[in-house]
Amino acid sequence: MQPIIGVVGLGTMGLGIAQTYAAAGCSVIATDAFAPARDSARARMAEALAARVAAGKLTADARDATLTNLRVVESLTAFAPCALIIEAIVEKPWAKQDLFTQLEAIVPPTTLLATNTSSIPVATIAATAQHPDRILALHFFNPPTAMKLVELAPHAGTSEAALATARSLTEAAGKTVIQCPDRPGFIVNRCARPFYGEAFALLEEGRSAAEVDAALQAAGYRLGPFSLIDLIGADINLAATSGMFEAMGHHPRYHPFDALKAQVASGHLGRKTGIGFVFPAKPAAAPADAATLTERIEATLINEAAWLLSEGGTTPEGIDTAMKLGMNFPRGPFEALAHHGKARILALLAALESAAPAHLKTRYLPAPALDTE
Ligand SMILES: NC(=O)c1ccc[n+]([C@@H]2O[C@H](COP(=O)([O-])OP(=O)(O)OC[C@H]3O[C@@H](n4cnc5c(N)ncnc54)[C@H](O)[C@@H]3O)[C@@H](O)[C@H]2O)c1
Prior knowledge:
Layout: E1 4-8, H1 12-23, E2 27-31, H2 35-54, H3 60-68, E3 70-72, E4 84-87, H4 93-104, E5 112-115, H5 122-126, E6 135-140, E7 149-154, H6 160-172, E8 176-179, H7 188-191, H8 193-204, H9 209-218, H10 225-232, H11 234-247, H12 258-266, H13 290-310, H14 316-327, H15 333-340, H16 342-355, H17 368-372
Parallel strand pairs: 1-2, 1-4, 2-3, 4-5, 5-6, 7-8
Antiparallel strand pairs: 6-7
Helix pairs in contact: 8-13, 9-13, 11-12, 13-15, 13-16
The structure holds nicotinamide-adenine-dinucleotide (NAD).
């Protein structure tokens, strides 16, 4: 018999997470504190599945089987038989702690409790638990049904058995699970920061958004940093950057550049407002020094990944896979390092440091993993 999966919170992420496990044949018990979210969940999932049937990507039988596997309930007491419960509720530490406290009174100590948090330390969420050894993060990407990557993060007290079970249940649902430490932004949201940040450094030095994007596209990136911000929203990007800047003690590697703040203040947030850094213009031709621009951005991507590696709990291969799946990058930072060579990257970082304004100097300090590898 397939294990039973619980999902709490049926918003953007929770509904997609529920669909992911239901499509893999698991029984899914799901709820939301907001009655309209519960009442509409089945219809919203049916709509998402209908679009896949219409596109020829799913059979009607598979759609029906997925919907049959979903059981929306009103009360948390129905979660008692779950092997794994994933919360995708509001991003507030107290709300997640309170939910897990309620669930611990209902489920046996063997039930795994996973958080889909983007920014709260797993250790904080586990701090009030009776059995913190079964608490971990399973961080899905949006939309969870389409994005293959799931980051798996333990806190210091998570048991190996809990990690292994969470991994195997999620891999069985078709995901690529990459383990990482309980550090701000896990892998992708942290290691992606220089993709945007260094692009802003170039913008503030007088390069245009269109030529930076064209350079990265010529190097195989599906979208340049500014087009990606236009897609996601400058306000969302600023919130993510500012969150990392706070969480990492205002380190200049996460500096929120004035150009980004000014863009948000202007209201030109990207596709959703009709104007962004590049949108609605078409991609420009790559500038003559496209390779130099790409190398500079990749040097800082490599350095950030090497800093994370230095902190332990992950591997170069794991970071590469996460960045390719989570960001659609054509190569991971350690593959880029192998391509450019360590000496070249260290030389680039040194040159960037000597040219940087005083407040950004330590932005380019090479990670220990780069100095010693
Ligand atoms: N949206 C993303 O791109 C994304 C990506 C990765 C992780 N996350 C994380 O996933 C979580 C959910 O995000 P979302 O975008 O799906 O939010 P959302 O606002 O779309 O959905 C949250 C749902 O949780 C419900 N809810 C709130 N408090 C609850 C509670 N105490 N008990 C039961 N239900 C409750 C709300 O009614 C709502 O339906 C957050 O922790 C967020 O940081 C979001």
